[in-house]
Amino acid sequence: MSIASQLSYIRSSLPEGVTLVAVSKTHPSAAVREAYDAGQRIFGESRPQELKAKYEELPKDIEWHMIGHLQTNKVKYIAPFVALVHSADSARLLETIDREARKCGRVIDCLLEIHVAAEETKSGWAYDELKEYLRSGALSALSAVRIRGVMGIATNTDDESVVRRDFERLVECKRELSAFFGDDFDILSMGMSDDYPLAVECGADMVRIGSKIFGARDYNIVG
Ligand SMILES: *Cc1c(COP(=O)(O)O)cnc(C)c1O
């Protein structure tokens, strides 16, 4: 199946109002270009240098999303152009994004990544710690960061009931946090190649799909 036909299949299966982020990490710019030519404009990457290189090489009307764990010392690579950081998961990272955004004269949209999966290794805020941080008021000093919603990754399992429980938890977190943030807080990013239909059923309005569009990833190519 070509990239274009995979994209059109996925698009036709998504309800109106659900945004598709095509996750192009580890795939060459030529693959991004193929998706671009098929009409896709939003792409997600997880490595800052790779993201920057693709940004420089590809058309400027692409909206680039940072979806993977972001180290503070790498924010500078993407701050000038990134459209949405899905993976804001610590106070230090938010402070760094704010500082780098100011340097560029920008306000950077971010999602709060919340840890819901059973795996220990997955990144994201522990929800209690996030609420404590929000109560502290520290976020109000970060005027170059705009919090747009919540992102999460479900447990990697074939057990649908576990995945559903994770998605429902994210829906609940977003609903609860909406009271704190108000109108701009309107994005729920959840669902990947293997679980996006369930994520959409549970209420996702942004899905991040990679291998189902671009095929399997070979991490060794990019190193
Ligand atoms: C890689 C990645 C995806 C896409 O994964 P696929 O299974 O290839 O669709 C989605 N979200 C995040 C955070 C990722 O790192």
Order of helices and strands: HEHEHEHEHEHEHEHEHH
Mind telling me which CATH architecture this is? Alpha-Beta Barrel
- The CATH superfamily label reads Alanine racemase
Structural class: alpha/beta
Give descriptors for this structure:
223 residues, alpha/beta, TIM Barrel, 8-stranded parallel β-sheet, 10 helices, binds pyridoxal-5'-phosphate
Structure description:
The protein has ten helices and eight strands. With 223 residues, the protein is an alpha/beta fold. It has a single domain, classed as TIM Barrel (Alpha-Beta Barrel). Helix 7 (160-181) links the parallel strand 6 (145-151) and strand 7 (187-189). The protein is globular. The two termini are 26 Å apart. Pyridoxal-5'-phosphate (PLP) is lined by residues 23, 25, 46, 67-68, 153, 192-194, 208-212.
Short description:
This protein is 42% helix and 17% strand. The chain has 223 residues and is α/β, with parallel strands linked by helices.
List the helices and strands and how they pair.
Blueprint: H1 3-13, E1 19-23, H2 29-37, E2 42-45, H3 48-57, E3 63-66, H4 75-78, E4 84-88, H5 91-103, E5 108-113, H6 127-136, E6 145-151, H7 160-181, E7 187-189, H8 196-202, E8 206-209, H9 211-214, H10 219-222
Parallel strand pairs: 1-2, 1-8, 2-3, 3-4, 4-5, 5-6, 6-7
Pyridoxal-5'-phosphate is lined by residues 23, 25, 46, 67-68, 153, 192-194, 208-212.
